[in-house]
From TrEMBL, chain A:
Biased composition (Polar residues): 32-49, 58-67
Bilayer topology annotation: Peripheral membrane protein
Co-factor requirement: Mg(2+)
Keywords: Magnesium, Membrane, Metal-binding, Methyltransferase, Mitochondrion, Mitochondrion inner membrane, S-adenosyl-L-methionine, Transferase, Ubiquinone biosynthesis
Transmembrane segments: none
Example GO biological process: methylation
One GO CC annotation: mitochondrion
Residues that bind S-adenosyl-L-methionine: 101, 132, 153, 198
Name used for this protein in its record: Ubiquinone biosynthesis O-methyltransferase, mitochondrial
From TrEMBL, chain B:
Source organism: Brassica napus
Signal peptide feature range: none
Region described as Disordered: 47-66
Keywords: FAD, Flavoprotein, Membrane, Mitochondrion, Mitochondrion inner membrane, Monooxygenase, Oxidoreductase, Ubiquinone biosynthesis
Family: Belongs to the UbiH/COQ6 family.
UniProt feature, compositional bias: Polar residues: 47-65
HAMAP family: COQ6_monooxygenase (MF_03193)
Pfam family, one: FAD_binding_3
Cofactor list: FAD
PANTHER family (UniProt xref): UBIQUINONE BIOSYNTHESIS MONOOXYGENASE COQ6, MITOCHONDRIAL
PROSITE patterns noted in UniProt: UBIH
Protein name, per record: FAD-binding domain-containing protein
Residues of the FAD-binding domain: 69-342, 385-469
């Protein structure tokens, strides 16, 4: 299937099957690029939605097609995007997962940059970038931990929401939000001490190129953190069969299982982009307590921390 | 800069054009749908407003109201415990804490003279609380004052049908608990706070009113918004005190007891009932030292005799209100006679010392533990009354929520229990420990202290445990409130069972010691 056909088929799929309340899962075929890699939904397994509508960072844009798509999409998503920060709303699973992600990031980055983990603002003086920041769920806590944060997202509405919310607290109002892509920032020559791209790479057309961009944004000896879903049988069972068909938490066709990456593949791609993966951890959801926990089980959701070679 | 009106779905965002209008908008918040926004460019950064110029950075020091991270309302044992716990953790010891308490002596160097008579207001601290106090560094101060460890407990009732003895050795511990005067607990923890790096301010005043506004954007306020501005935009809560001061804080903690004003102002409802019982407390003296905690259930309520150190003991006698006022006003000698009677042959016979473990039940009782073999003992006689007799009514009260917007409740403000098992303040210490842990975790993960999710985590940890304990205590209270033959026998049999079935007894001791927070499932 060529790229255009995939986009159109995906759109047809979405229109017919996605109930109104699930539009938030849809990725934006947004401002500058299209990504035809996978159907337009970004969700890890079960109840976690990444819900950060992210486009890929490849700029293969068919501008006229995307701009018309944009208007419609924008209108549909306006109400839903406002619920980013409603902790009991549609983004609730992401809110639940956030502390767990932050715990991993805090521990690995403190170690990497030799910062005191018992300090309240350990990232003071570090420049971090949150690629695919969505409403800023990750950027704000990182700013409170003292980091100088830049958040980018290809979806303009997300950036607006993020800006509005960050402006409510003096500590987070210093976050820089931009509606742009990693590639564009590379072209601008920006670099950061640590680059974070959580729940993005499964929606990218060319993961290898994406990782190269992330690596280019990282200073030598800097840190790169990615999280995504594993291409495993268990992920198929939970993220696709269970979530989409049995429990119907996600619309059918949300995930293209073939676009998931295994930890080994991710490690290899990052290796080729001059990033050495040092640590990996899995996220496990406990439906009884409703909490996410870090574990060694990387068979469904996993997060990887790597260092950029010199 | 041009402004654009945008229809906004988020109904909790309002724009205070000026303070008066803000108050009106606040009351109509659900209908308000207009919001000013700056013109959006793709590169959106926060610009420093240059209007106020370089005076902004000095504004905080001159004339701007002080801001605190946490305002603890109530400087009693539990409120100070929270402050001391925050002071002992590296992640939280840099916080700025305000303590609001009406007591003008709070914080002054109070030297408790060594030879003083024990105050009747004492608390039994469980081993779990003792480890908490050790962790925050307060236990060493407590050990310098009068305190009484005990390792044995005897519980029996007036029917003479049975008794139970608990021994710390049953669970391989050295002690079952320690009895400490409340003012010692409070001053020791306060010493810890005063010696720490925690920035603290004590406000000797009463809380009059409290206000929190919904969150809104800080755009246009410049680099360092003033305290009042932060309050208007919902970042801080405002507390108005009786001496006219205004205190601003990100989080307000209600540690102000069972008639909590914070709870009232936050609109948190309670459930509960009054027991038709009052308790009389006093200090008494013996001729010998007492190392055991004694409790006898009488028809109108239990009488407890707790060692407090040297040859003193503390009496907690629960009875109905008319009896209570009689006993309070009777002469000292008559009172001493009544106490000795209640602990001895009054109301009913001594239980017989049963021989250890009926052979037919040995498969059930298993390893019969030490205390099951112990004989029934009579408590030491009281020879002198050493303090005034204080009386207070008993009730059970539980707050429906422990947390609300920028508010958390700890201690008696969240839950009030019957003193029959000496658990009340231990629940409060556990609350303080859990809340400070939740705050530390929140700070570690970059959360705003007053945020709902953080506070809810504290509530989810403490509420089930507190409710379980309250249910157990209330159940015991009700079980003993009835004098009815078959029920008495059933009660005694249950007692007997608990006395001899070691696994059950171990669980009971472990639960009462605070080692496990839920009676089942742990």
């Amino acid at each position: 299937m060529n790229q255009m056909q995939r986009i159109l088929s995906a759109r047809r799929l979405s229109h017919s099957l996605i109930p109104q309340s699930c539009f938030l899962h849809r990725r934006w075929f947004s401002t500058s690029e299209t990504d035809a890699s996978s159907p337009p939904l970004s969700s890890p397994h079960q109840k976690i939605q990444t819900l950060e509508d992210k486009a890929s960072n490849k700029s293969r844009s068919t501008a006229s097609a995307t701009s018309s798509l944009n208007e419609q999409e924008l209108a549909k998503f306006s109400a839903i995007a406002d619920t980013w920060w409603h902790s009991e709303g549609p983004f609730k699973p992401l809110h639940l997962m956030n502390p767990t992600r932050l715990a991993f990031i805090r521990s690995t980055l403190c170690r990497h940059f030799s910062k005191d983990p018992s300090s309240a603002r350990p990232f003071e003086g570090l420049r971090l970038i949150d690629v695919g920041c969505g409403g800023g769920l990750l950027s704000e806590p990182l700013a409170r931990m003292g980091a100088t944060v830049t958040g980018i997202d290809a979806v303009d509405k997300n950036v607006k929401i993020a800006r509005l919310h960050a402006d409510m607290d003096p500590v987070t109002s210093t976050i820089e939000y931009q509606c742009t892509t990693a590639e564009k920032l590379v072209d601008d020559g920006r670099t950061f001490d640590a680059v974070l791209a959580l729940e993005v790479i499964e929606h990218v057309a060319n993961p290898a190129e994406f990782c190269k961009s992330l690596s280019a944004l990282t200073i030598p000896n800097g840190a790169t953190v990615l999280s995504t879903i594993n291409r495993s049988m268990r992920a198929y069972a939970s993220a696709i069969v269970a979530a989409e068909y049995i429990l119907q938490w996600l619309p059918k066709g949300t995930h293209e299982w073939s676009s998931f990456l295994t930890p080994e593949e991710l490690t290899m791609i990052l290796q080729r982009a001059s990033v050495d993966v040092k640590e990996m951890a899995g996220f496990v959801y406990n439906p009884i307590t409703g909490r996410w926990l870090l574990s060694d089980d990387i068979s469904v959701n996993f997060i990887a921390y790597g260092t950029k070679k010199e | 800069q041009s402004y654009i009106y945008i229809y906004h779905v988020m109904s909790d965002v309002i724009v205070p054009w000026d303070r008066v209008l803000a108050r009106q908008l606040r009351t109509n918040v659900c209908g308000s749908k207009h919001i000013f926004q700056r013109a959006w460019s793709t590169h959106v950064t926060r610009k420093v407003s240059s209007t106020a110029g370089s005076n902004e950075s000095n504004a905080n020091s001159t004339g701007d109201s002080p801001q605190h991270d946490i305002a603890i309302v109530g400087g009693g044992m539990v409120g100070i415990a929270l402050a001391a716990s925050l002071a002992s953790k590296p992640l939280t010891k840099h916080l700025n804490v305000a303590i609001i308490d009406n007591n003008p002596l709070l914080g002054r160097k109070n030297i408790i003279e060594k030879g003083h008579l024990p105050d009747p207001r004492v608390s039994t601290v469980t081993p779990a609380t003792i480890s908490f106090l050790k962790d925050i560094g307060a236990w060493k101060y407590i050990e310098e004052q009068r305190h009484a460890y005990f390792d044995k407990m005897q519980v029996w009732d007036y029917t003479g049908l049975g008794y139970t003895r608990y021994n710390a050795k049953d669970v391989d511990q050295d002690i079952l608990g320690c009895v400490v005067e409340n003012k010692v607990l409070q001053s020791s923890q306060l010493s810890c706070v005063q010696e720490s790096d925690l920035q603290k301010t004590i406000y000797p005043a009463r809380l009059n009113s409290m206000d929190m506004l919904p969150s809104s954007s800080l755009t246009g306020l410049g680099e360092v918004p003033s305290t009042a501005d932060l309050f208007m935009r919902g970042r801080l809560a405002k507390l108005e005190l009786s001496d006219g001061n205004n205190v601003y804080a990100k989080l307000v903690v209600g540690a102000d007891g069972s008639k909590s004003r914070v709870r009232e102002l936050a609109g948190i409802k309670t459930t509960g009932w009054n027991y038709s019982q009052n308790a009389i407390i006093c200090t008494v003296e013996h001729t010998v030292e007492n190392f055991t905690a004694w409790q006898r259930f009488l028809p109108n309520g239990p009488i407890a005799l707790l060692p407090v150190g040297d040859k003193f003991s503390n009496i907690v006698w629960t009875m109905d209100p008319t009896e209570a006022s009689d006993r309070r006003s009777m002469s000292e000698d008559d009172f001493i006679k009544a106490v000795n009677d209640a602990l001895d042959y009054g109301y009913g016979p001594h239980p017989e010392t049963t021989s250890s473990g009926g052979s037919s039940l040995s498969w059930l009782t298993g390893d019969v533990n030490i205390s099951a073999k112990e004989r029934f003992e009579t408590p030491p006689k009281v020879v002198k009354l050493s303090s005034e007799r204080m009386m207070f009514p008993l009730s059970l009260r539980h707050a429906k929520d422990y947390v609300s917007n920028r508010v958390a409740l700890v201690g008696d403000s969240a839950h009030t229990v019957h003193p029959l098992a000496g658990q009340g303040v231990n629940l409060g210490f556990a609350d303080a420990s859990a809340l400070s842990r939740a705050i530390a975790e929140g700070i570690a993960l970059g959360t705003d202290i007053g945020e709902a999710n953080l506070l809810k985590r504290y509530e989810a940890e403490r509420k089930p445990a507190n409710i379980a304990m309250m249910a157990v205590l209330d159940g015991i209270q009700k079980m003993y409130a009835v004098n009815f033959g078959p029920l008495n026998a059933f009660r005694a049999a249950a007692f007997h069972g608990a006395h001899y079935i070691s696994p059950l007894k171990k669980r009971i001791i472990s639960y009462a010691s605070g080692e496990q927070s839920l009676p089942l499932f742990s």
